[in-house]
Amino acid sequence: MSEPFSVRITVRGYETDVQGHLNQSVYINYAEHARWSLLQAAGITQAGLLAKGVGPVALETTIRYQRELLAGDEVDVSCVFEWGGGKTFRIRQTISKADGTVSAQLFSVGGLLDLKERRMVADPTAYFKELAADPSLFGL
Asked: For the whole model, what pTM was predicted?
């Protein structure tokens, strides 16, 4: 397991619901933004993934909402990949206010899809190690 990678996001007014809270679907967008930011920081691009014939897939996501977020709040979205040795991996993410208050925790299961065969690759870590300029960001 690696140290959490993190990005800062400011909650925008149009992302809130009628109560003024961050809309539930936006938490997923923030998590996805952090994951792609981590890939980019490690040197993995969408073009690089496509050239290898693979693409990341989300298989499951669970969200635990803990504290509300309002327009203007600044949040840090962390991202840690956890490897288990099979076709899938887990991603643990935390969305925290700038003062450290945890607003939500997300737990995901993902994998890499072989875009030609339309099946999960047997060893996603091999692809991450090969494609990344800095695999240590993934704990590899």
From this structure: 0.93
